[in-house]
């Protein structure tokens, strides 16, 4: 799903209104009715609701939602934060309808109103600002939102949590409505996925309001939100008459004394995602551990007891996955250099492999095109250097990917896969993944797809999606707190 900017969304609104021959009010009504359906599903039964509405079109949505909830028997009160002297045209229509056709108590607030005694119902719907916010919130709006954030209530934002900027970064220390749910129209917005205010969004639900698809398809966007539909576009099924040789042979190189769990997780995750064969190049001390923990994998001992060392292979791996538990000793540098030079196919480098790369930029010259690097945010910083703000980081990642022709999988709460100026934002996963070893599992999953003839970009996008989805699968019946990397691996079967 393409991620569009506010100005593209405004254009898509206009185009849709003209070509579907509907009024802007009818489009607003369509959006609001769809939002009401989501609210009903979230609340399960009618509960008292406070609607905070602005005086623009986001406010218009809020007033329409208030109207329809009232018709459904919800107890509704409306607070209009009138930050402009006039209502927008459609907002005014909905304001008048509310006055004419319902008993709802509507209070108007302006700069001069006393908001100290404000109280909220157990559900607060925020429709103060949407994609139109372009400067700091008026002071009285800030105060109301701050109060709403402190209220004992379930908070639902319509389109965008008020206070969150979209055309630029939200200034630090801004007040933003802290939503439990954000019901956003047509597509998610880029700033939802940046860490600065990411916690303010709660669960994001995208509402298709039927904006013209052909128009949207023609719009340029550097950002894709990777959902199931996107994955279905390239996911492969296995043929009945196939054998393990058709699904590749992965070499995993890594681990050292005391850190053998890393490669063990990588190898297991690769096998559970369908790779034909896995061989692990291990320090001698890890051979028995691996043979016990992953009996399906073959193991080759290094010449060194405690670390991986360069080794002549008597087979040709389809792809190599290297770096987890590798360490950064002289021998580790030698091993990474050896395997990068040996590899003619894209290689996946993770963890210590990335730290070695950061300090030995000459190694990039030998990296096969479209190799995959999977840094977490600390490793990313070492690779691309410190960034200013999040937009600067995006620019730096794109530049880095272009400079070395590599795929950068920037791991975070929302993982961004960057290649060729395009950014693929993953939609799956949860905070349970913030646990040791989950990155090792991810490296195995991506490498496995690479061996199964997905392109390096597809392997990265698919691997990240499946890894997150497996974690989501686990947390449908377990707490995020108890998720381990092994749980992710155990859930791969059902997820796939
Ligand atoms: N047909 C459609 O288009 C549909 C639209 N839909 C809904 O409309 C929402 C977008 O509506 P919107 O464009 O009116 O923007 P909104 O966020 O309500 O702001 C209103 C105005 O406030 C102003 N302003 C900005 N910052 C300010 C500030 N700090 N302090 C004071 N004023 C400030 C700024 O105007 P300006 O002053 O810059 O001229 C801005 O235009 C969208 O999110 C969705 O909910 C859906 O119903 C689907 C159909
Ligand atoms: N809060 C979070 N929400 C979703 N995914 C997360 C979160 N925190 C971490 N992750 C994911 O967990 C993985 C952690 O990787 P990494 O830090 O390399 O772990 P390790 O080195 O312990 O294996 C990444 O895929 C990252 O995107
Ligand atoms: K809003």
Question: How do you describe this structure in short?
Answer:
The protein is 39% helix and 15% strand. The two termini are 21 Å apart.
CATH topology of the largest domain: UDP-N-acetylmuramoyl-L-alanine:D-glutamate ligase
Strand arrangement in the largest pleated sheet: 8-17-16-15-14-13-12-9-10-11
Output the CATH homologous superfamily of the largest domain: Ribokinase
Query: Per the principal axes of the C-alpha atoms, what is the gross shape?
Result: elongated
Cofactor: K(+); Mg(2+)
GO molecular function, one term: ATP binding
Domain YjeF N-terminal: 9-217
Keywords: ATP-binding, Isomerase, Lyase, Metal-binding, Multifunctional enzyme, NAD, NADP, Nucleotide-binding, Potassium
Please give a handful of descriptors for the protein shown.
single chain, 496 residues, alpha/beta, Rossmann fold, UDP-N-acetylmuramoyl-L-alanine:D-glutamate ligase, 2 domains, 10-stranded mixed beta sheet, 17 helices, elongated, binds ligand NPW, binds adenosine-5'-diphosphate, binds potassium ion, Ribokinase-like, ATP-binding, YjeF_N_dom_sf, EC 5.1.99.6, ADP-dependent NAD(P)H-hydrate dehydratase activity
Outline the fold blueprint:
Elements: H1 6-19, H2 24-43, E1 49-53, H3 57-71, E2 76-81, H4 89-101, E3 105-109, E4 123-127, H5 139-150, E5 154-158, E6 181-185, E7 203-207, H6 213-218, E8 223-226, H7 228-232, E9 249-253, H8 260-272, E10 277-282, H9 287-293, E11 298-301, E12 319-322, H10 330-342, E13 348-349, H11 352-359, E14 372-373, H12 377-384, H13 390-404, E15 407-410, E16 416-419, E17 422-426, H14 438-451, H15 456-475, H16 485-490, H17 492-495
Parallel strand pairs: 1-2, 1-4, 2-3, 4-5, 5-6, 6-7, 8-17, 9-10, 9-12, 10-11, 12-13, 13-14, 14-15
Antiparallel strand pairs: 15-16, 16-17
Helix pairs in contact: 2-3, 3-4, 8-14, 11-12, 14-15
Residues 58, 126-130, 157-160, 162 line the site of potassium ion (K).
Organism: Mesohalobacter halotolerans
Protein name: Bifunctional NAD(P)H-hydrate repair enzyme
Cofactor: K(+); Mg(2+)
